[in-house]
Amino acid sequence: MKPEGGWIKIYRQLTLNNIWTEESFSRGQAWIDLLLLANHKDGIVRVRGIKIPVLRGQVGWSELKLADRWKWSRGKVRRFIRELENEKMVVQHKNRKTSIISILNYEFYQCNDTTDSTTDGQQIVQQTDTNKNVKNDKNDKNESRSVSNRAFAPPSLQEVSDYCNERKNNVNPQKWHDFYLAKGWMVGKNKMKDWKAAVRTWEETKPKPQETGMSRLKRIARGEKVD
What's the half-sphere exposure (Cβ side, CA atoms, 13 Å) at 195? Predict the structure, then answer.
């Protein structure tokens, strides 16, 4: 029988219960665990004394910590995260300091902001079993509102690199990605809404390299017009 739509509430402290963590995780359990571990509001983690921003909908756990928690090998964790990326369910952001996992469409898994912020420790995940007691009309309205209000998903370094190559610009993808990752994906005082537009802005502000005297002489020798 095909599952009906609807939602259930899962208490975040379930992640501290031995029943949840005493055995090796299944793949489905690992996915739900990521939803439970994701920040419900912006915060930070400290890595070797350095503050790393972790936004709402992001998981600030390394592959090594997840492997220990899920009782998997690190390779299995890496393959699982890569599969979730291929399915457009998460984006992983790696740099020299840490690894951050962004849950794509995080707001889709939330009933509404009031429930998430006022009920301490609660997380909303999509129901997978039939529940005849669900008020479907109300849930359909909440789901529509959540989908239309999806959160910004930070790009991976590879996405930025591919976009810069596509535009053939002179923006350094690593520097751009590290810059906004350290700023918590803020543009001024506002959350970033369009990362591609931010890349194009760097194209406009990045100074063009100055021509050396030698290159000028070479151009004159070739008969080119020099300003």
Answer: 21
Q: Which two structure tokens, joined as six digits, stand for 68? A: 């220990």
pLDDT tens digits for range 53-92: 999 999 998 889 999 999 999 999 999 999 999 999 999 9
| Residues 79, 61 contacting (CB under 8 angstroms) | no
CA-CA distance, 73 to 4, in Å (whole number)? 35
CATH architecture of the domain 7-154 equals Orthogonal Bundle (1.10)
Query: What pTM was computed for the model?
Result: 0.51
Cα 10 to Cα 13, 105, 111, 116, 132: the distances in Å are 9, 18, 12, 11, 18
Asked whether 7 and 126 are in contact (CB, 8 A), the reply is: yes
Task: Give dist(CA 45, CA 94) in Å, integer.
Answer: 14
Domain ranges for the chain: 7-154, 155-227
Residue 60's CB is within 10 A of a number of other CB atoms, namely 21
